[in-house]
Specification:
The chain has 381 residues and is of the alpha/beta class. It has two helices and 31 strands. The protein has two domains: 95 residues, 2-Layer Sandwich (Pantoate--beta-alanine Ligase, Chain: A,domain 2), CATH 3.30.1300; 241 residues, no CATH class. It starts with a helix and ends with a strand.
């Protein structure tokens, strides 16, 4: 009997040992599971925090703030933080690098997740890689005219006394000598270069979305306009000014008379916009076409669809703007200053100057400030 009780006791002890062992093992598994669940949860919170940082930075840059986003909590009720760096070293591009932390950046057991986003302006790129590009009728530079920048002519380059190109010169055929003086390298007998392309239908549609009015003449004072289609002529008379707030489509001619000013709304920032003209463009004496005050600048591009030998003309002391006449001729007269020109033919008369902006190869043009910044690429690091 005593032997039976001893055997039972041993069995009970073995059972207890086994049960305790199983219990300890299960407890260990539960603890490890809880830890793993917490780590997964913290990783999830860190990723959500990084996403919140990107959203905050995108909101900032679309409202003109390119500064880094300092370390901050996602929400008072959530134990996670984020910080974002903003790289604006490339024109019309922002690189956002966000790091999320859970439960916090200073926690010893923190989890981190990083996201990199490339944002670009929502505008249309129109690359002006040369100060001047011409079609097969070429470039003519009269006495004392100057181009500060490189040029490419799908025809010839003909220069007269003291004309000067401060840059390189390419031509499909010949480049005259000794004028123009070319401070860089002459490249005669080159292949034709494709001229920048403008999607007229796109810009005409965008302008028309703002409504249509008839012929408009601004006699004095200041007005704002755009997007808008003008079914007829657009004329700025002496001492008047117009601020462009969106693209304009003019079915007739566009004229700026003496001492007039054409502005682009400051909210465009580094983007520009277009004025598309079916007829001729005439920029008369002392008229100024202004750019935005940002770096890089935002410009007004004036494009004529005319096939005339005087599709675009700029007279004495006219200043500013980018001009485009793919099927017509452009003439710049005494003491006029412009930024860039594309035309079937360009003639620079005495003392005319063209000052190229090096930021134009990356130029963006939008239908309005709402073009904003958009995500081009997204990467979880």
């Amino acid at each position: 009997m005593k032997n039976k009780r001893g055997a039972i006791l041993i069995l009970v002890l073995i059972f207890l040992i086994v049960a305790i062992s199983i219990g300890v093992s299960l407890t260990s598994l539960v603890i490890r599971g809880l830890k793993s669940t917490q780590q997964t949860f913290d990783q999830h919170l860190a990723c959500e925090a990084a996403e919140a940082g990107i959203e905050r930075a995108m909101w900032n840059i679309n409202n003109g703030d390119d500064n880094d986003v300092a370390l901050q909590k996602v929400d008072d009720a959530i134990n996670s933080e984020y910080e974002v760096t903003v790289d604006d070293s490339v024109a019309n591009m922002r690189i956002l690098a966000a790091t999320g932390y859970s439960p916090s950046k200073t926690a010893t057991n923190k989890k981190t997740k990083s996201i990199k986003v490339t944002a670009v302006t929502g505008g249309v790129g129109i690359a002006f890689r040369y100060a001047v590009q011409t079609g097969d009728l070429g470039l003519v530079m009269n006495g004392n005219s100057t181009i500060n920048g490189n040029i490419y002519s799908n025809g010839s380059v003909l220069g007269y006394s003291n004309s000067r190109i401060n840059g390189d010169a390419w031509a499909d055929t010949t480049i005259s000598s000794p004028d123009p003086t070319v401070t860089g390298t002459k490249h005669p007998d080159e292949e034709d270069e494709v001229l920048p392309n403008i999607d007229y239908n796109y810009w005409e549609t965008k302008a028309t979305e703002g409504g249509t009015i008839g012929t408009l003449t601004i006699d004095s004072g200041s007005q704002s306009l755009g997007p808008k289609k003008i079914d007829g002529n657009l004329t700025l008379n002496s001492n008047s000014s117009l601020t462009v707030t969106g693209p304009l489509y003019v079915t007739g001619n566009f004229s700026m008379n003496s001492n007039t000013h054409l502005y682009i709304d400051s909210s465009f920032g580094s983007s520009g916009t277009l004025i598309v003209v079916e007829g001729q463009i005439a920029i008369n004496s002392n008229s100024i076409i202004h750019h935005t005050g940002t770096n890089p600048k935002g410009y007004i591009l004036l494009a004529s669809k005319s096939t005339s030998t005087s599709a675009i003309s700029l007279n004495s002391n006219a200043n500013g703007g980018i001009f485009y006449a793919l099927n017509g001729n452009v003439e710049i007269n005494a003491n006029a200053h412009v930024v860039a020109v594309v035309g079937k033919k360009l003639t620079l008369n005495s003392n005319a100057t063209l000052d190229y902006d090096a930021g134009l190869p990356n130029a963006k043009f939008t239908s309005g400030p709402s073009g904003g910044w958009a995500v081009k690429s997204w990467q979880l690091l």
